[in-house]
Structures
1.
Amino acid sequence: MGPYRILVTNDDGMAAPGLRALVEVARQLGEVVVVAPDSPQSGQGHAITISDPLRLNKVEVFEGLEAYECSGTPVDCVKLAKHVILKNQVIDLCVSGINHGSNASINIIYSGTLSAAMEASLEGINSIGFSLLDYSWDADFRAAQHYIRPLMEHVLQNGVSECQLLNVNIPRLPLEKIKGVRVCRQADARWKENFVEATDPRGQKYYWLTGEFINEDLEDDTDIWALGNGYVSVVPSGHDLTNYRAIPTLKTLEQISLPQKI
Amino acid sequence: MGPYRILVTNDDGMAAPGLRALVEVARQLGEVVVVAPDSPQSGQGHAITISDPLRLNKVEVFEGLEAYECSGTPVDCVKLAKHVILKNQVIDLCVSGINHGSNASINIIYSGTLSAAMEASLEGINSIGFSLLDYSWDADFRAAQHYIRPLMEHVLQNGVSECQLLNVNIPRLPLEKIKGVRVCRQADARWKENFVEATDPRGQKYYWLTGEFINEDLEDDTDIWALGNGYVSVVPSGHDLTNYRAIPTLKTLEQISLPQKI
């Protein structure tokens, strides 16, 4: 038990090996509370639960640690942790993950892991989302843990200047092959969607979402470049979606004239 | 029928009066296809459906228009519209809404309406999310329609320079009280959360999310200022969450040294 209070969450639920790997590091640095969704919430983005009540269930999963399952989304988990479980006590750091799979580039928009961390940052809590570029359930998180610890220590000791959210991705490499840390920007990549069409036993069509990640942003200052070249990527992130460069060019919209009749 | 193809979507579903009001304007400007979720999806953010199949159901709701209900989130609707319904044909404009209630400031993060529009922008389609600052189901959308038409015309004719997504909010005022359009930035406001706690008939606690919108960003260049002063707000928006100012100050992270042992 240290002097710090650390909230640990994810989007894959309490049983995810990535969560266990993150808790192992966090409990070396402070007093840990774990709040995770009670069902998988990958791809939930910044969804919140408005029209349904939320449930919290205290569970014994990590010896000696307070842990709760929550019926909602990753963002709901963070809101409940802050306001119901911890009753607005100070939280020194929120860490989310370790996600099984990349949340680099545009994935930050779709990711429940990063949305949980972003929600904490909106609440004024320094936050880090961690993801390992390995989708398999039995991924090896040891190299990731070696980088996660000093990153958490740095943020606990120094804060995160000008921003309260870091998106950290770790390449799928053994520790000795990882070259270090790169602080970078989000690559302007995207998913090229596809749907697999099928027919159910009653003759009705249905569709499965699938897709291919496309990156044509090949500069060497992006997270995709860093990961492809053996670095851990750290992207300082935020919640301001304004495109400032577009404001002056769109000022002409202020001169629109209304139609006489709709 | 005009020369333009316009995709109309929302997060409140096919029966929402706001959708009807938007379709009325859109069909005056081009060939319209409507794709809406088959259940309310407010607060769904940028959620996508990964682990379930998606259904599409053609419906006769708008006389003479193609319309489909989709079993997924607003983002799923846009993906299905582009890739399955329209089979990757050119879409000249995607409009989402009219949302019943504000999506100004930080609401863009939580909003299904704006996430649908953002997804279209990620697909390279010029997109506008429209919201009226009136939560009631029988809100009066006439003043909104008067502004929506020239905004859509402007984007169809001129594009949206440097950005493909506009977040448009309309104050709850009669047409003659609205002072015009302001192109602005997203106010740095947030929700102060609260939970209402209750107990179910079996003695188990549950929680309802509630909250209060707090804005301490009082400059006159924000959407919240524009709306509070009688203007329609237009915020050019994007999907790059990088906090560029923080990158130089965080470069010290590149010097972290690894622990000898985890």
2.
Amino acid sequence: MEPSEITAIVNVGDDLTLHGLTICPDLDTIMYTVAGLNNTELGWGLEGESWRVMDELGALGGDAWFRLGDRDLATHLYRSQRLSEGATKTSVTQELCERLGVKARLLPVTDAELATCFETEFGPMSFQEYFVRHHHDVAVTGIDVAGADEAVATPAVIEALLEASRIVIAPSNPLISIDPILRVRGVRDLLEQRRSDVFGVSPIIDGRALKGPADRLLSELGYEVSCLGALDFYKGLIGTWIIDEADAVRADEVRNRGVNVLVTTTIMAQHDNARRLSAAVLS
Amino acid sequence: MEPSEITAIVNVGDDLTLHGLTICPDLDTIMYTVAGLNNTELGWGLEGESWRVMDELGALGGDAWFRLGDRDLATHLYRSQRLSEGATKTSVTQELCERLGVKARLLPVTDAELATCFETEFGPMSFQEYFVRHHHDVAVTGIDVAGADEAVATPAVIEALLEASRIVIAPSNPLISIDPILRVRGVRDLLEQRRSDVFGVSPIIDGRALKGPADRLLSELGYEVSCLGALDFYKGLIGTWIIDEADAVRADEVRNRGVNVLVTTTIMAQHDNARRLSAAVLS
């Protein structure tokens, strides 16, 4: 498949305003990764990054816990300026992608403001407080997405969901990376309509998430911590559920829920595996 | 005099919001200079500066004409974050000065937003468009300070003007650096009240400004380009007018306006001269 044939609909629920800057962590992570500019050593941010501004900000007594590299800051300055001029997140993302040579189309699910927030054992927290400051090491009793009721999917997102030959729900965290997308008006209905073309990749393998708090959150919010629990979270949306070979024994339970099942290697640590998973999704 | 006995009341008319950041060029320039951190090579900004963020912003196609160094950016990030948390410019300035070891007290004249703007031969321009982008190389037909009618001087500024043993109007550009201060409600009245303690240093020497467009602007707005023209601009406010030895022949004209005159070296290029001027102002 040509990269230009791929559209990624991206979560904006963990976007934040910090130091006056609008920061879109999910859009940027995907953009940098697809551009081949991601920092593989850190696991986030840009390659060849430097930290001059953060070091100085720390010396001034500023909040430097959310690490913004010097290169990365340019993205946030660019976006913040364009938004202040009246541009939408959608158009700014397109501009940045053009500059960085990203051929795939990246679409924020909405141009409205969303804010995923957590009810925790220590009280309410914003996404970044939960995820970055506390390293998601707190018990969560509820997740809300402020602004989701009023937010509507952009025309480009609606068109993409209507016209895609296949819709793939990536093995991201269902509760904090995918659900804020599903909560935006228009998205869930369209996925239900197109259910037979919706392929989901289970983020839970052998009862665990590869990284992040998906397993813990599923359990805390009452779901089985398994490929089945994740499927139940997406109830009514999935036509074909792709599970790892480690979970092959659960294939019949998936079928019993009226969902097609595909068993393959879903761990994308090696390039070959990623290629095989992509081929399975496209087959 | 101890630095801690000095209060500087600073213009905020050329403050701007760029890339989402609140930037206060006059406050920062004075703060960096008094802290001994100013970049003497460039004539503005911080010593040991680097330009990683601006270089990346330029590569992204962003507006990089207003050069913000990496170290300098930390100041703007700090200020923008604190303002978003509800802090005033006054308190943020105090925090930054403490961190940078500035013993003198720096006070923005107001916590309200001011914006100096120019009517020019090419239409209206913001301060930074006029000063930085066009290098003040355009004809000006009028200067306005948006927000000045509603802005009030802060309590700290009013107290300082009431209690200072001596008030000095520095040889900055009268029209664009001092006038926006004078236009803030409360300031002009207080200076008139305290006129006998108000010392002004002429920014015009032998018919020219040492740097910047003060001479050109005085002429364009109908004043004589001389120490007399600058004094006339401050009509009613000055008790003692300090002029350079080069203008000694005009001392009587100053006196004829009912203003005391002091003739000394006003060019502060050498440290000794600066010291002599300070001594004259304090004598």
